[in-house]
Each structure stands twice: as C-alpha cells, then as structure tokens.
Amino acid sequence: MSPRLSVRKTYKLYINGEFPRTESGRFYAVTGKGGELLANACRGSRKDLRNAVVAARKAFGGWAGKTAYNRGQILYRIAEVCEARAAELVEELRRQGAPAAEARREVESVIDRWVYYAGWSDKYTQMFGSVNPVAGPYYNFTVPEPTGVIGVIAPEQPSLLGLVSRIAPALVGGNTVVAVTSEKQPLAAVTMGEVFETSDVPAGVINLLSGIKSELVPWMAAHMDVNAIDTTGVPSEAIATVQKTAAENVKRVVHFDAAAIGWDDHRRSQGPYAILDFQESKTVWHPIGM
Amino acid sequence: MTTTEIQTRERLTPGPASSSVLWEYAPSLESTDHVKLASRYNLFIGGKFVEPHSKKWFESINPATEERLAEVAEADAHDVDRAVSEARRAYEKVWRKIAPSERAKYIYRIARLIQEKARALAVVETLDGGKPIKESRDVDVPLAAAHFFYYAGWADKLEYAFPNRTVSPVGVAGQIIPWNFPLLMAAWKIAPALAAGNTVVLKPAETTSVTAMLLAEIIQEADLPPGVVNIITGAGATGAALVSHDDVDKIAFTGSTDVGKRIQRTLAGTKKKLTLELGGKAPNIVFEDAPLDQAVEGIINGIYFNQGHVCCAGSRLFVQESVAEAVIRKLRERVQTLRVGNPLDKNTDVGAINSKAQLEKIRELVESGVDEGAEIFQSSCALPQRGFWFAPTFFTGVSASYRIAQEEIFGPVLSVLTFRTPEEAIEKANNTPYGLSAGVWTEKGSRILNMVSKLRAGVIWANTYNKFDPTSPFGGYKESGFGREGGLHGLAPYVVLS
What 3-state class would DSSP assign to B87? Predict the structure, then answer.
C-alpha cells in the first residue's frame, strides 16, 4: 500500500464572502525560512481591490445597521471558530518561520483579541457618546458612527495578530474592511478568511487581498470610495506618498505605532480608542417644547 | 497710535429699503461712536504688537461701503517663523509648566473681557465682515465668549475626558480660520488649544482680520504670558508658511475643501496632527407632515443666515412632492420680506457679501443655474449702490446634476429639489462628497430618528437649523473634514494620549 497523499490547500482571495482566485490570474511564491515553497498565493490586482471595495460598500449599511449586541455576537463567533481552527493557524505561522511556542502565543492572542473587541460592541458608544448641555431649549446629543469602508494594510509581522488587531476595532465599530495581508506571510491571514466565512460575518463586511503591497497600496490610497486607510503595514518609506494620495477624498489616515508600542501590551495595543479611530461623531439637535 | 473714528451712517443707504416690504421700518442703526479702531494693525507676536518683517500692510475694507476700515500687516515667512518660535518658547518655558487650574483662570479672563467688550466687538465684526449687527451681537460674540468660558473649565479636568490614558498637550498649534465668523472661529480654535496646554499661532482670513486683532488686545489685557497666543495676519501665502513650518506640531484649518486637501497633502510625511473643517452642501429635508410655517422659517435661517456664508448652510432643500407647491409659495413670500441692507441696522436680516471675489463666485454659480435650466426666484429688494450685495435667491426645477446642486455656493442661494419617499430623500441627501450637516422637518419622532441615523453628516438639526453651542461637537463626515470642535470631543485634536 502506498502512503496517503495529502491534499494541499489553494490560497485564494476573500471577496464578498467568496473565495475567488485573482481575476488577473497572477500568483507569487510564498516561501518558508529555508526558501522552500509554501504556497502560490494570489497576486491580487487593482480590479480585485475595486471589487472588494464595491462589496464592502454594499455591505456597509447592513453591518452598521445591525444591533451592537448582534455585532458583538458575530465577533465572539469569530473567536470561537478561531479557537477550533487554532492548530491550523499555528501550523501556518510555524511554516512561515515562527518558532512553535511563538506561533501558539500569537494565535492565542488573536483569539483573545476577538473576544476583547466583541465585548466592546455595546459599550464604546456610551464612552464616546454624550448628551450635551446646550444653553437653550434643545435636546442635544452626540453619537459615534462608523466612518465607512476602511482600507487596512496589515503589517508584515506579526502577520496574523497584526491583521486582526487592526481590523477588529474597525469591524466592531460597524465599518466594513478591505485588508491587504502580509505580503511575505499571507497564509494564516488567508485562512482567517475561512474563519470569517463560517462565523456569520455577512458577505462583503471583511475582504482580504494577498499580493504585492507596492502594487496594491497606492490603489487603496487613491480609491475614492475608501473613507479611511490604516497605514500600519505600509513600508515606512512609502507612508508619505500614501498620506498625500489619501488627501484626494480627505481620507482619515490611521497609523498604529507598532515599533513603539508592540502588539502584546494589552493596555496600549488594544482598547476603545482604537475603535474611535474609525468613528465619526454625529451631533443631533431637537427643540424641546410642547 | 492714530485712531480713526468710524462714520458709517452717512455712507450707507439708511435701513433695508425695499418697496415690496410689507412694513416700512425707520432706520435703527447701531451706534459706532464708541468704537475706536487703529488706522493700522501690526502682528501680535510674543505678547507685543510688532511691525511685519515684510514692511507691508494691506487694507481691510467694509464690504457694505467698500471703504477702508484699517490697514492690516502682511506676515511673511520670517514673521511666521518669529511667531512659531515665540509660541515654542512659551510652550516649553511657561504654558506646559503652569498649573492647569491657573491656565483655566487665564482663559476665563479672556471670556470675561470678550463679554465686557461685546458691543464694540459686534460692531467691528459687522463693519469688517458685512454681517447683520443682530447676528454679530446675538450669535458671534456671545458664542465666542461662551466658548472660552466652556473650555476654561476643562483645563484642570482633562484626565476625566480620556479615561485610562495619560493626557499631554501636542505643543505648538498653527490655526487658520475663515472669514465668515471671524471672532467666533478664533474662539473655536484658540480656546480648546489653550485649555489642553498648547500654545497657538493663529492666522485669520485676510478680509476679516480686525476682530482677531481686537482679540489680541484682549489677550494682552488678560496678561496671558507672552507667546502663548500669537496672531499673524496675511493671505494664503502666510497660511502656507504656517502649515509647512517645521516647528508646528498641529494644524487646525477651517475653510474650503480644496485648500483643506492641499493642507492634508502638505502635511504628508510629517508627524503633525491635523483637523479639517471644510465645505458642505447640506440637505434640508421637509416632509409633508412638517409644520410648514416653522419649516419655512428654518429654511430661511438655514440658507440666508450670514448671507449664506456658512459651511453648514442648508443649501439643498428637499421638499416632499405633496407639499412642494405650498412650501415654494410660502418661501417666495418670505424671501420677499427679508430686509436686505445696511448691516448696522438692527432690523437687517441679510447684510453685505463679504468680498468682491466672493460676490463674483456667487454670480458665476447663479448664472450657471440659469444656463443649466433651473428657474430662478430673487427678492426684488433694492440693493445699496456701493458695496457687495446679492439679493436672496432660490432655484426651483433643479436637477441633481446641476452645479448649483453640487457645488458649495457660500452665498444666499438655495436649490430646491423634491422627493417622494423617505428612502429617496436619504439617497439624494447623501449623494454628495460632503457630509457636514443636514436638516430634517417632520412631526413624526420615529421618522426623525430614522433620518438622523441614515444621513451621513456630522451635525443634524431636526425641526431647527443653524444652532451652535460650545458644548456641542461640530464637524464633518467624508470630504467635509475630520475632527470635532466643541464639547469634550473638541479636546481630542489638542491632546496626545499615552
């Protein structure tokens, strides 16, 4: 009897709740520490990015309109499914070069981060909203609302915790996301797409693109229907150009200073202020009378 | 210092003359004899009034008469540098070190001095900017004082505003403000910056610098430590020099979306913090069940307040089809009764257009509306011979693609459109790159809350319009900018959290 041949996984994009190959038909090789081939990842194109933004825009109203409780449950569900697939995620991080213990710790942090942000879903509005005591006969209040479609450029490392740490606060706040994964280590990030797909995340709410950052980032920065861009994973020499391009539609530019803060400092690497980065404040006036 | 007494009475057609106005009012002019202006204003740098390095001054005119009000200094890059280095010195040596409760007391003093000089400030604001005295007297100046009073109280309470974080000031703030609410915008910018422990270099708009210089005198009188607030006058080049100065830590800008984008681009690659409060093309939505007379007052206030020189002006009126005819009829009658004329007259509703350039821009856009096929209605009021004037105007038969439905006119010009269902109103209202403000008129509470949650705008007035308060955060979505001014939210742009 010959030994059983294993079934390999094809790493694809995650757009609008589906797993298409890049429309461009292009790929790039993802290699391990020793240069061995790990996978042929999709080299996402400008058209893929546009499709992802269209999907994210379409999903925005529905996601922002869900109850906070519901969004919290879906984020918690992501944590549950992550936990169930932890071994696979750890294995992917390990194959991409992380020592086993470190890979396990990263996945544990990822799961805990989903739980952490799930819990914020029905709380941050009370922190950041207000009733404003105006000097007149008006009822006046301010509520935080999601900014819209957020483009997230995930850091190269930690490839999974970095991605999750940046998209979770955007998502819990009712935004939809188009994320560019770590270029060199996209495997676990792409698998996260499968987690989302099985966690009741509505189609289009999260979209993941693997590919070459120097190609994808300028298109993300220039896209007129992206409301904010998270530049955490943009190579430092390219940040100024991204910021300049982002001005074309007055994009909010958010940057998490991983070099200074790190990803594991639970007081500073996560928190409601990260949610606030992807929120607008809406103030409402109404007269008080008979 | 030489002073010129202002004599405006003789120079203007008395009162808002109009044969079509139902009631003729006798002129009721605010007196100006108690106001003494300098013939020339220098730069306020390091607590002193200093001549500009450029040795150049430009005229600030009264847009209602086209006559010279005063000369204002033109700050060049060298002056900007002086102001920034004074602000830096004051930040490092004084302002960041003094007890927050003492900082508060300085800011309270400014508020009190504005109240003491309220009448003079209102008169000068009207003379310099052309806005009706009843607006500068009842809105601009009292709100400016209130803004300082409100933020003064935050100075020693910042740790309660940002739970679980350490709050520090940003440093030196460069602030650039527009010409539509000159003193009020200065207050919106300076008050939260000082409360949070920053020092300031403020540049007012070139057509309306005079009340900012009176504020500089107030700041001097309040004994604010030299350099904590510096006020430098000039046009776009002065602002550009401030924006690109290396030692400025934060830029706050209120003005056009075009200039805002330019500033955002300029700051790319720097560590400077930025807040932008930019243009708007606000929808004002009237449902068939709205109290129509009140709604018409709200429409009028929404677009003709301050000659429509308001970034949050309700410049796109959406009326439900079933009441469109009635609303337009009432609007026609009401526009006709607006009293247009001498801004110093206490009965004046609509004053002078702020500048010749702005008047030309308004005319150009109104012509485009006529050319594109909209139907124009204009008040038949008589306009003064001298000065910059534009009769209150609205367009019906406007298609969403017309320039007058898309571009910010920043004048007393309204575009009227119609809708059938709430969904259609939301769709049309949100169909703009702007997102500063919106209005909703309906008696139905649940509909208000539905509209409020679906309109993509930073300020929404339901059954009211154009209300402002220091406790109430103000600012835009989308291309109307980012960051908030007013309230606890207005502190965030001026702090660093760690």
Answer: helix
Pair (B318, B446) in one structural domain: yes
Sign of CA dihedral B462, B468, B472, B478: positive
What pLDDT sits at residue B6?
Answer: 41
A286 touches chain B (CB under 8 A): yes
Evaluate whether residue B16 is within a structural domain: no
**Chain B, nearest residue to A285 by Cα:** B461
> Is position A6 within any domain?
no
SS3 state at B427: helix
The predicted pLDDT at position A220 comes to 98
How would residue B7 be classed by pLDDT, with cut points 50, 70 and 90? very low
Tens digit of pLDDT for each residue in A100-138?
999 999 999 999 999 999 999 999 999 999 999 999 999
Which residues on adjacent β-strands are paired with residue A286? A139
Residues paired with residue A152 on neighbouring β-strands, in sequence order: A179, A230
Q: What is the CATH number of the domain that holds B297?
A: 3.40.309.10
Domain that holds residue A255: 27-287
> Whole-prediction pTM value?
0.95
Give the domain CATH number at B211: 3.40.605.10
Give the pLDDT of residue B157.
Answer: 98
At A91-100, the pLDDT tens digits run 999 999 999 9
Among the partner residues A249, A267, A282, nearest to B433 by beta-carbon distance: A249
Identify whether residues B178 and B88 lie together within a single domain: yes
Determine, yes or no, domain membership for B472.
no
Contact A282 B458 (CB under 8 A): yes
A134 CB near a chain B CB, below 8 Å? yes
Contacts 24+ apart (CB under 8 A), A30-35: A30/A96, A30/A184, A30/A185, A30/A186, A30/A187, A32/A95, A32/A96, A32/A97, A33/A97
pLDDT at residue B220 in the model:
98
**Average pLDDT value for chain B:** 95
**Cα(B2)–Cα(B358) distance, rounded to whole angstroms?**
31
B138 shares its domain with B213: yes
Please indicate whether, in this complex, the C-beta atoms of A282 and B452 are within 8 angstroms of each other. yes
Other Cβ atoms less than 10 A from the Cβ of A127: the count is 15
CB contact under 8 A, A285 and B474: no
Nearest CA-CA distance, residue A174 and chain B, Å: 13
User: What would the mean pLDDT of B363-374 be, rounded to a whole number?
Assistant: 98
Q: Which domain holds residue B129?
A: 3-11+27-278+478-497
| Cβ <8 Å between A285 and B265 | no
Q: How many domains does chain A have?
A: 1
Number of domain units in chain B: 2
